[in-house]
Amino acid sequence: MSFESRVVLRQGKKFFSAILLASLLAACSAADDGSTNSGETAASTGGSSSGDSVETTGEPGIPDNLSFSIAADTLNPEGLNWNGEEVNVTVQLGDETNSFVVDGTEVFFEAEFGVIESSCTTVSSRCSVVWMSGAPRSPLPFRDSNVITRTLFNGLLPCGNLPSGIPCSYNNRVNATPTSPKSFGGLGQVYGNRVSIIAYVKGGEETFADTDGDGFYSEGEAYSDVGEPFFDYNEDSVFGGKLADGTADAGAADVGAMCYGDDNVCYQEGGDNETYLDENGNGLFDPNGNGKYNGTLCLAESNFCTRSPVTLWTAITILQSGSDAFTGVYPLGSDVYLASSYTTNINLNTTPTLVVAVSDIFNGRLPSGTKIKMTSTNGTIADGSSCEVSNSSATGFTTCVVEMNPDATSSSGFLHVEITTPNNTVSDYFRVLTD
Fold first, then answer.
1. Would you say residue 71 has pLDDT above 70?
2. Is the peptide bond before 123 cis (omega within 30 degrees of 0)?
3. Contact, 31 vs 24, CB < 8 A?
4. How confident is the model at residue 150 (pLDDT cuts 50, 70, 90)?
5. Where residue 381 sits, what CATH number does that domain have?
6. pLDDT of 26 above 80
């Protein structure tokens, strides 16, 4: 897009004098063929403004980072045991005025597990690619042998004292500090079969707050400094890649290092294989950009802004859910860490409200749309005879509340939990009920 087009697009919300605008359009007429002239500057236009306004042309613009979003139609497909489960991943872009970007803007994709189409080009400011389940499903061996992808009841879990096949109710995410670099709860790092998908677009620009209203970036105005794209395999929000000898990659977070990003999110184990795109070619991961505003609305190259484009990126996590269900039933309010909560016979006269917990082998959610059906051979189900696994890649698993009523006859029976995945894998679980 020409510099002329970029300025005219912003005039729907910024004000310039008619004389200033005419001068600017004349200066840019040589680039009227629509090609980008990134070396051109507009220092001669100054930074003054007036109350005059000009209609916007409606011409699409250049992507900016705050208008770049990503979504997936299924967040937990049945991908652990099945190849070819498809997820549509869609990106939407906008320019600095939240208007459409140029049709044909190319967006690139990479995925941690499974396979994904490499790119798409925008039409009406959006485009989609297909991710498919399949190999690889496991990470490369980690350099730290203590960091593994754990499964339920592999002998290394805090939940190992529970009966076999019961989901682990420990918190799956505990933020670390520079002196405590571990996720202590649940299965630990790295969470199993969670798929990081990254999307990036070259030739974008950063968002800024035009507080003086002159239509250009001015020194001191707030802006978002975009760092280099990276794969966050262990979901700690920092780049933790290691070299072959186990030392941190250049620019990577490490134990004892200062945290970056959110105050309560620091380096955690499990990011050994994380990689990044070295956009500036300096051999160093740069999490916070170059310390300047990057964009076409920089009037002239300076120590506080540059007209050089920047690579924008965003990411999403989906879950390759397993088909086999791990199930536990316990009375509401009982201690979920005690084996007796899952093994002691339930007396419906005293504990009529039950919780059904269901996960896959990695203690995550079963596939979206999995049906969970409850029936009973003793007492009656007053509420909660069925539930369904939601479309979500959040850590944790599915719980359903079942309200029971005892019957008039003292007897013993079973609560039968039947779990059916979208691909018709059926799992059964039985819990003794008395009244």
1. yes
2. no
3. no
4. confident
5. 2.60.40.1080
6. no
Place of tokens 């280099």: 228
Judge whether 325 and 83 are in contact, CB under 8 Å: no
Instruction: Show the domain range for 39.
Output: 3-45
DSSP characters for 65-120? Answer: GGG-EEEES-SS-S-SS-S--EEEEEEE---TTS--B-TT-EEEEEESSSEE-SEE
Q: Would you state the structure tokens that stand for residue 255, as one six-digit string?
A: 């134990």
pLDDT in tens, 265-287: 567 778 888 999 999 899 999 98
Q: How many CA atoms lie within 13 A of 120 on its CB side?
A: 22
**Distance (Å, rounded) from C-alpha 323 to C-alpha 365?**
10
Residue 360 lies in a domain: yes
- Of 29-33, 349-353, 405-409, minimum mean pLDDT range: 29-33
Check residues 184 and 22 and name the one with the higher pLDDT.
Answer: 184
The domain total for the chain is 2
Asked whether residue 414 is domain-assigned, the answer is yes
Strands across the sheet with 115-116, in order? 69-72, 86-92, 126-132, 115-116
Q: Residues 179-215: pLDDT tens digits?
A: 555 554 567 777 788 999 999 999 999 999 999 999 9
Calpha distance 96→12 (Å, rounded): 12
Is 311 part of any domain? no
Say what the alpha-carbon torsion angle 66, 68, 73, 76 is, to the nearest 10 degrees.
Answer: -70
Any idea which residue has 């004098």 for tokens? 17
Burial of 193 (0-12, 13-18, 19+ CB in 10 A): buried
Dist CA 235 CA 229 (whole Å)? 14
For residue 342, is it within any domain? yes
Beta-carbon contacts of residue 118 (< 8 Å; ≥ 6 apart): 108, 109, 110, 129
Contact 333, 382 (CB under 8 A): no
d(CA 242, CA 145): 13
Q: Provide the 3-class DSSP secondary structure of residue 419.
A: strand
In order of 48, 151, 329, 383, the CA distances from 336 in angstroms are 66, 18, 10, 22
Q: Dump pLDDT digits (tens) for 339-364.
A: 899 999 999 999 999 999 999 999 99
**C-alpha span between 132 and 84 (Å, rounded):** 5
List the Cα angle 192/193/194 in 5-degree steps: 95
Q: Which of 320, 289, 318 is nearest to 305 (CA)?
A: 289
What is the pTM assigned to this prediction? 0.81
